[in-house]
Amino acid sequence: MTHLDEERIDAAIDGAELAPNEVEHLRACDACRAQVDRLRTLRANLAALPRSIEPNVDGWPRVRETVRVRRARRRTFISAASLALAAAVLFAIVRIAPTPDAVTPPVAPELVELREVVPAVVVDAMAANLTIYDAALHELEAYAATDAQNADVRQRIDDLRRKRAALLRLASNS
Q: What does pLDDT average to in each consecutive run of 10 residues of the chain (174 residues)?
């Protein structure tokens, strides 16, 4: 027994006239009949599909929220990594720095009373920053004395004074 080829099965599905022996074969052959049934079901399912698919108008808020969450995670990761790196550097500095008994760095007068409340390492770090600020201020003020009209130098001096004051405020809040 020879099965119907694809062309004849398509003809049967489309409702075309089949030869009497082909009609008889479809009645007797379970495989060909199952093939015709499967293809009819498939065509019916395809016909039921929409002709076009419109994009979801409300999809953008979900996408925007997903992007916001990913950015927040990335910022959190970068912040945590930066904090870990800063902690590692501070740890390395503390491990390499001489013991407090050996050398006690000079402390800015504004920070002397903090030694009793705040760990010495923190006071030393603040003192080092104040020393850097003071040296930079001294240099800029010396330069400003030779070039009094330079607004950029004046601006930098004001910025450094504000940063120095902010560091002292931070120390006093500790």
A: 80 82 85 88 88 75 86 85 81 66 53 69 77 83 82 85 81 66
- Cα(151)–Cα(154) distance, integer angstroms: 5
Distance between CA 125 and CA 159 in Å, rounded? 20
Q: How many CA atoms lie less than 13 Å away from 59 in the CB half-sphere?
A: 4
Instruction: Output the pTM of the full model.
Output: 0.36
| DSSP letter for each residue of 108-131 | -GGGGGGGGTS-HHHHHHHHHHHH
Supply the DSSP string of 34-60, one letter for each residue.
HHHHHHHHHHHHHHHS-S--PPPTTHH
Q: What's the Cα-to-Cα distance from 95 to each of 1, 91, 113, 118, rounded to whole Å?
A: 91, 6, 25, 19
Residue reference for tokens 């130098």: 153
Contact residues for 128 (Cβ-Cβ < 8 A; gap 6+): 105
| Of 125, 133, 127, residue with least CA distance to 162 | 133
